[in-house]
Specification:
Elements lengths: L1 H25 L21 E3 L4 E5 L16 E3 L15 E9 L9 E5 L2 E2 L1 E6 L2 E6 L15 E6 L4 E9 L12 E2 L4 E3 L1 H42 L4 H20 L7 H26 L6 H22 L1 H4 L6 H17 L2 H11 L6 H24 L2 H4 L3 H6 L3 E3 L2 E3 L1 H45 L10 E8 L7 E7 L5 E8 L3 H18 L6 H15 L5 E8 L4 E7 L5 E2 L2 E2 L4 E2 L13 E4 L5 E5 L1 H4 L10 H7 L5 H12 L4 E8 L2 H5 L1
Parallel strand pairs: 19-22
Antiparallel strand pairs: 1-12, 2-3, 2-4, 4-10, 5-9, 5-12, 6-11, 7-8, 7-10, 13-14, 15-25, 16-17, 17-18, 18-19, 19-23, 20-21, 20-24, 24-25
Helix pairs in contact: 2-3, 2-12, 3-4, 3-12, 4-5, 4-8, 5-7, 9-12, 12-13, 13-14
Amino acid sequence: MLPRCCGAIAGLLCVALIPVTAYLAAQPATAASVPRSSLAPLQLDGGSVALDGPWRFHLGDDPVWASPTFDDSSWERISADKPWGAQGHPNTEGFGWYRIHVSFQPNAPAAIALLVPQVDDAYEVYWNGSLIGVFGKLPPHLNLWRSQRPGSFTLGPPEPGVLAVRVWKDAFGSFDSGLQGGFEVPPMIGSPPAIDSALGVWNYNWLVGQQLNFALNSLYGLVAIVCLIVWFRDRRLWLVLWMAGYAFSHAVVPLFGDGVLPVTTGMAGAVSTPFFSLGDVSLLFLLAWLLDVRNDARLMNVIRWAAIVDMSASFLDAFTGIGFAMPNPAPWQWTDALMTVPVCLLEMIPFYIIAVAIKRRARLDWTRWMVALVALLTQVLFFSVYTFEQGSRFTHWTLGNRIAAPLFTVFGSPVTVNNISSTLLLIALAYAVYRYASENTRHQLAMEQELESARAVQQVLIPADIPAVPGFKIDSVYLPAGEVGGDFFQIIPASAGGLLVVIGDVSGKGMPAAMTVSLLVGTVRTLAHFTERPGEILAAMNQRMLARSQGGFTTCLALRVDPDGTFTAANAGHIPPYLGGKELAIEPGLPLGLEPNTRYPESRFQLGPGTQLTLLSDGVIEARNTQRELFGFERAASLTTQPAEKLAQAAQTFGQEDDITVLTLTLVAAEALHA
């Protein structure tokens, strides 16, 4: 019986203690029993110590939490050596407060200062309820700095107090792990000289850690400047322009995107994102040029559309970061995540370009295949890091971070796989572009020398002085175009008086055309000793051209003009002559160099005293203005009664595209001749 009684009594006592326990739990704790987050009195001795905690921490925001009298005993305890996302609050955005109670030993320095290292993303520092420093601006006037630099603040005399830090963690991006937020390194407290020294050490270490990146950025910038200078000197070198775009992108993006320059997050995104896309687009065109696949129409259409989509998406993505500061950033976060889909797809296009080059078995030198190999490696690394970092706060994939992690250090600068691959790609691209530009320059010089030689040959074959033929007034105008064309003419006095006139136009440009002209002019001068019949001259020229030329054709018009104005004409596909402003109906034959047995019928006409006979080349008819309108036959015919100079100048002013040749022949009246 006794045990059962004891059990009943114990049960009654437990029931009776329940309200007592609840009452005691509801009573506020006394000041002496508050387990505040405080440190033992700090021993400074003119130096500094790290406030590694534990700190009291609470999510949310209330201005009262800055007060030194606020009771933070119910807040959780966390350390300051890693973000709050890694201490039980993953994927947490918004406000968070840190508080710690600090006291000093009697030998503390006369003044105390505080060094706050990187904090994600903006913060305010309160000492005993007074605001003593800020980094960035917190909502509702949010303004974040891209670079997370340490800040130093003066606390004043070494009095016991409460240090409170109000932190704002901005909305997560698509590549964030969700483990960020708040302190990443513990703050330091000490004398002002000690804090200044610690700040100097941090800045020095930061510079040492960035020296490799600075060197690479400077190299990219130098390559970009050199390429731009080369391109401005020769606008035809598109490959050099794409190299400048690629290098310039890699020089600019780290300055803004990696926080080298003191710019806001919004500006960093607005500038770096389009330049990042510029680098992608430039690489696509670089690979197309260097791997010699730019003649693939389908591939080039893909590249052009990819460039349009990439640049458009970059400008849209550049401003999604602005929405992160909105009261409801979720729609902007989804937009940011969705924008990564086309970006990831576009990053695969270099693989497509390389695959096309391999499939076509392009005959390229080793430097271009080296570019393809290094570009393939770089894109694989970038695509892996970029893809696995996307949505990592949900997938918890760490492969991207492991690939991007430093492999080793060189003079204090961390070296990553991306550093190595990017440097190799820059060297391979620069060398390949240099070789391409050098070869192209040599080719251009050879072409220019050939054109100069052709122009010299043509100038020799165009009569500088028109021979004086009794009874005739002869004028000629020859206006060469930018390229060496195939216009030619010859005026040869006839043995029995009168003259032989031959005008023609060889198809093609440059030295081949000039050599054909030389062949034909030599033929005409030789034939003039044996025959003066236009049809026979054209037939012989046709045979000579078929025997010696390699393709191509020539239009030609030959005339034999007698002293009394009677003239005989034969035409091999050339523009008919104009007599008194009207086109003569001459039976045409095929151009020279097409058929071996072509006959060239002759037609006879009469040139009256004072009447002008005008011969011209197709450069007059085919002149085009800026609206691509032809000068045409009608305009030409209306001016064929004018001096040769006026007709030629009219066509040239209208819009010359080919050589312009105009000959005019007028029979001088007997009285004018004797006068």
